[in-house]
Amino acid sequence: MKNFKLLLSVVLITAVLRVNAQEEHKYKIHTVAFYNLENLFDTVNDIEKNDEASPMMEIKANREEIYKKKVHNMARVIADIGSDTTGNTPALLGVCEIENVKVLEDVANDPLLLGKDYGIVHFESPDRRGIDVGLMYQKSLFQPITKSSHTLKIFDDTSRKRIYTRDQLLVSGELEGELVHIIVNHWPSRRGGEARSRAKRVAAAKLNKHMIDSLQAIDPYAKIITMGDLNDNPTNASVKDVLKAQRKKKNVKIKGIYNPFINMFKKQGLGTGGYRDSWSLFDQIMVTKPFLDKDYTKWSYYKAGIFNKNYLVNKKGRYAGYPFRSFADGGFTGGYSDHFPVYMYLIKEIK
Predict the structure, then answer these.
(1) In this structure, are strands 224-229 and 178-186 parallel, antiparallel, or unpaired?
(2) Judging by DSSP bridges, how do beta strands 168-175 and 142-150 pair with one another?
(3) pLDDT, tens digit, for every residue of 288-318?
């Protein structure tokens, strides 16, 4: 780990890469991240949502103070992701488990993030719990061009009633002049068991693949980032068989998808969340092949990782070693989220 940090310090913070004895290339670097904000609800009862069942609304005393602490905790983590390497907060950040745009505005206006001038893309989704996905972006680095919300229609196997879940968010825009497309996901949960609920996530993956295919039909070389809490591991059918995400860059063909989190899960046993002595890696970021081309005059994929700094890890109790979650046993713990964030670095040569 120390060697890795040293390498990043030399290669990225100084932004100099020596290609050969005669030539040096300078690079800029940005962080792209995803974070499940674990039930970031405000304190106001929305009669059009089931928000009264949220952990925040179940708290009866000092709710406003707890909400402010929760918001500040989220801002602290966001401010920290990638900062050791880039000296900056994420250029792009996908989030899930937010109640509305107001809670994201509160996070963006926290003193730790206010100076970064984050913009927000958010649509209300039909999720039965009243939670949505969203995208935060630094306005000085990214300019949205189009944004759309894509509905996932799934039905109960027995009753055939519709199951209302999160929409998938698509934002296309320019990252310092270069067109990129970002899809933010929060796929259906494993409620009722992994096998019983599997078809819902396969359906979510099919919607995601359709969105990617549509972008690639317009431009086969479209630079697409798809990220989110998939409620599936990189080895599950939704990711492996539907998205056909590859673990090796050399195996990614044109219109293919690269998933750097496959090896983290399969070979290193890493995860972003834990349950019953087992780690899961539900939070992932994947990219299409053009990000892998070694044309560093454009934004290119460099590294990916799990942001699991020591303060985000629970030190005691039944959740010891797992993410230091915000809510447990009907109260606020002072923690952050039951998921670790994930991130990747994009680099581009400075002329």
Answers:
(1) parallel
(2) antiparallel
(3) 999 999 899 999 999 999 999 999 999 988 8
**Per-position DSSP letters for 74-108, written without gaps between them:** HHHHHHHTTHHHHSS--SEEEEEEE-SHHHHHHHH
Domains of the chain are 2-350 (3.60.10.10)
Look at strands 132-138 and 118-122 and give their pairing: antiparallel
117-121 contacts at long range (C-beta below 8 A, 24 or more positions apart) = 119/144, 121/147, 121/169, 121/171
Q: Which amino acid is at 299?
A: W
Question: What is the reported pTM?
Answer: 0.93
134: exposed, middle or buried (C-beta count within 10 Å: 0-12, 13-18, 19+)? buried
Are the C-beta atoms of residues 239 and 187 closer than 8 Å to each other?
no
3 state SS of 326: coil
What are the structure tokens assigned to 349, written together?
């040569």
Q: Using CA atoms, how far apart are residues 4 and 126, in angstroms rounded to an integer?
A: 43
